Amino acid sequence: GENVEQHPSTLSVQEGDSAVIKCTYSDSASNYFPWYKQELGKRPQLIIDIRSNVGEKKDQRIAVTLNKTAKHFSLHITETQPEDSAVYFCAASMKAAGNKLTFGGGTRVLVKP
Amino acid sequence: ETGVTQSPTHLIKTRGQQVTLRCSSQSGHNTVSWYQQALGQGPQFIFQYYREEENGRGNFPPRFSGLQFPNYSSELNVNALELDDSALYLCASSLDSQGQFFGPGTRLTVL
Q: Which chain A residues are within 8 Å of B48, Cβ to Cβ?
């Protein structure tokens, strides 16, 4: 089955700097890659997603890039703010598997003011 | 538009007991997926229901079962509870192949 690896496990950045989280996946049939933000004690929130027919997608300070050949995708957060502090999860799925999401292990991001 | 809701919020059970968790999908969504999230880990897929039929299952034993109702709400049942079943149980709803939106979860503690 699909396996998703996520790095780094923790990331500490100064407010205003950029943060980058990287994920790799194993199944070349995966075609949908969402990112979730989970604050302590809260539900995972979908913040951005990308499909395999697109190489990059941006939404204000957040961007995701996808390299299908290398089977990796990344989340980029620019101009980080303290409210960006949370655990971020990447995931992969394929429609043929009923869109079951396989998650990475998570990255704990701390934005220091 | 109503978001995904789950009940109860917290639950404490003892080993060997049975538990039923409930999920109401977001308005307009026809698919519900269930995930188990252990402390400090990413969610693990349990199973998915699409239009009242099971549509995929993860690596969980048969004592994890579920169903979906005509209004697309769903239940997760766990029999013969074990200590390792202690976790946050999340349901997520979606419309066909669109993004999955999570509920607040049910924190299950097995003693």
A: 98-100
